[in-house]
UniProtKB/TrEMBL annotation:
Designated name of the protein: Thioredoxin domain-containing protein
GO biological process terms on file: methylamine metabolic process
Protein topology in the membrane: Multi-pass membrane protein
Main localization category: membrane
Domain Thioredoxin: 172-327
Record-annotated membrane-spanning stretches: 45-63, 68-86, 115-136, 148-167
Alphabetized UniProt keyword annotations: Membrane, Transmembrane, Transmembrane helix
Pfam short name (any one): MauE
Native organism: Barrientosiimonas humi
Amino acid sequence: MPELALVLPVLTCALILLVSGAAKLRERQATADAFGALRVDAPSWAPALLAPAELVLGVALLVSPAPLLVVVASATLALLLAYWLVVARALRFEHPVRCGCFGRLGAHTITGRTLVRNTLLVLAGVLALVGALRGVSVPSALADLDQWWLWLLGAALAAAVCTLSLGGSGEPAAPAAAPAAEPGDDAGELDYVRHPIPYGQTRTPEGTQLTLHELATERPALLVALSPGCGPCTRIAPDLRVWEEQLGGVVAVRALFDADPERVAELAPAAAPYALYDLDLNVARVLRLFANPSAVLLGADGLLAGGPVEGEPAVRAMVEDIRAELADAGALPADSPEDTSRSRQDV
């Protein structure tokens, strides 16, 4: 029967929900950050329930008989429609939004491609509900494979949805950060190949143009790429002052924003005194700072001295490594405060 081919949208929805739920379960903080970045007004416990809900729905789509599948497919469609509305609204925000919809899998920046993906997911949800209403279910359909062309069409839909969901964003991948050298380990230092600081212009809050070379003329500069509304960026913003104190003035700490000063002052006021602006993302591109937060260390000798690194843990680890190397070299003032970034992150 042709209706049997409608089981493929059910399988598609189940696969996406299981993969998404498993990824969110591994990256619980990323899910909470996504709620903030997407400006979803929900109770604090909602992000923690999203992954289990997706996993339960995914399993239920696979094992439910036709009468119960109607309820499960309806709940799945409602969830997919909610995702579609959230993405459509996010596309109207002033600045691009990054979220961990699939944990570390797939693209993270919300674009028109994301809306296309979610539209296909909604279509799959509608077809899954239609199949359930017609009495189709996975257990009853697996034995009937004679409608090969309908199965092929459904498989094409499943492949398109999975490709758009889990495929890359089209952005070039940031290079892996060089491993931190152990104190006294010359071989570790040689692992990091230093390149000249590329040309790029940032803008100060006063509107003055400042090149990357000028930023590190007198001392090295740690440039941390942040974005207002990004959960990890919000957590890092108050630590910029702490990091500057920990580095004892030997290394300057600056934040690179892709938003205007008014938005930074509103959403990340703690970072405003350290802010530089890169509204057209030219500096982010030449330094390969493709994610927020990310960081790179500009050397006072005109060469890159570390990074780029991507993600909150990597940025914090980079600051800790810089401080440890300065301490080993005796370059820190005696009154430099101890490192507190790791304990702050774990709170």
